[in-house]
Amino acid sequence: MNRISVVTGAAGGMGRAIVERLIADGSHVIGLDIDAAGLADMKGDGFEGICVDLTSAAAISDAFAKIKETHGGIDALVNNAGTCFMSEFPDIPEAEFEKQMALNFSGAFHCCQAAIKLMAGRDGVRKIVNISSNGAYNFDAFDPPHYRASKAALDTLTKDLARRYATDKIAVNSIAPAMTETPLFGVVSQEVLDKAIAQMPHGRAMQPSEIAAWVGFLISPAGDISSGNVIILNQGRDVR
Ligand SMILES: NC(=O)c1ccc[n+]([C@@H]2O[C@H](COP(=O)([O-])OP(=O)(O)OC[C@H]3O[C@@H](n4cnc5c(N)ncnc54)[C@H](O)[C@@H]3O)[C@@H](O)[C@H]2O)c1
């Protein structure tokens, strides 16, 4: 039987690559995204989309209820949906702060709550992979404080759930990438982008498929023995 995997932010740059990787590895993938047209565009063997606003706990609950009804349970969850708002610290509007935390952290929190219930009784080691960011650890790059804090909170959730569910055989890890070429690059000017890419040791941004390969590895049986780790992917940029 195919493993059932849920990927949030499935219609984005990283999300599409993760969906492709997991389908190639034998998962049936359910993509959650607010972008209905993007999800429709991805229709194909091994994929189904559910349009959902991940800033709403009620909408998340409805989406997972639908998944339970159709598939009975799930084996893997990838919390990938996220964005980066760029206002300067003293002037970050309250609504922007709330939305940053709601999408990058609270949405993932509620998806974990729903997913863990649907993982009960499934075979093998079940997996949660949270897509964090180097921004939580590297303070040289441009990332704003609310973005950094949302990802740091996500990584603490990773460690808590890893510990809490270790003996239930639910493995929880974060992957924290640096500059990866996706539509999210559009949040900064070309000048800021060029400077950040120039700091990458290989002289180039990473590709979504390179990050997706690590997600696939964690979800594969080879990943069964890793839990509670934050895996930093940045070509070795921050080694001192
Ligand atoms: N691109 C990078 O350099 C980079 C680096 C580090 C971490 N990340 C992280 O990778 C993840 C994926 O980002 P990406 O680069 O693919 O960006 P992206 O903008 O291409 O994709 C984000 C996806 O999230 C969806 N989304 C946004 N708001 C939503 C909502 N309210 N409900 C449901 N879906 C919503 C969008 O529709 C989009 O499909 C994010 O968590 C981001 O923080 C990206």
List keywords for this structure.
single chain, 240 residues, alpha/beta, Rossmann fold, seven-stranded parallel sheet, 7 strands, 42% helix, globular, binds nicotinamide-adenine-dinucleotide
Note down, in words, how this protein is organized:
There is one protein chain. With 240 residues, the protein is of the alpha/beta class. The chain has a single domain (3-233), classed as Rossmann fold, CATH 3.40.50.720. It has helices spanning 13-24, 36-41, 57-71, 94-119, 145-164, 190-198, 208-219, and strands at residues 3-8, 27-33, 47-51, 76-79, 126-131, 170-177, 230-233. The chain has a 7-stranded parallel sheet, with helices on both faces. Helix 1 (13-24) crosses helix 7 (208-219) and helix 4 (94-119) runs parallel beside helix 5 (145-164). The chain is globular. The chain starts with a strand and ends in a 7-residue tail after the last strand. The structure holds nicotinamide-adenine-dinucleotide. Nicotinamide-adenine-dinucleotide is lined by residues 9, 11-15, 33-35, 38, 53-55, 80-84, 103, 131, 133, 177, 179-180, 182-184. Nicotinamide-adenine-dinucleotide (NAD) binds next to helix 1.
